[in-house]
Amino acid sequence: MKILLAVDGSPYTKKMLAYLTTHDELFAQVNDYTVLTVQPTLPPRARAAVGKEIVDKYYSDEAEKVLAPVSRFLLRHGIDAKSSWKTGHAGESIAKFADSGKFDLLIMGSHGYGTLVNLVMGSVATQVLARCNVPVLLVR
Predict the structure, then answer these.
(1) Which domains are assigned to the chain?
(2) Tens-place pLDDT, residues 62-97
(3) Are the beta carbons of 94 and 108 closer than 8 angstroms?
């Protein structure tokens, strides 16, 4: 099975990983895993002021802060996952990546580090569910 793990480094990412490790049908070396994080786009004036090279390095560094611990966790459990990062609106970017990558399943936490806090489900999770054609497993 081709599985996409959407992560942001929040406590719900950790809960999602813990859930994953307790379900053998999801957490197996026969599955193909990709870990994705989405960085919010910097304001245009900030990007223009510091230049493309600095902005690209900033995005890369911020993505690595999220992806590195997840990759280490998966490697400790025998899973060598691919990693990827995007910039933009998280919900839209995750859904588009899942659809274009032809994933069988998208797994993500129900909440994250978003600025809006919803009681039942985070705003990014809501956007992903509205836009994504891939089955989504939300872990709360």
Answers:
(1) 2-139 (3.40.50.620)
(2) 999 999 999 999 999 999 999 999 999 999 999 999
(3) yes
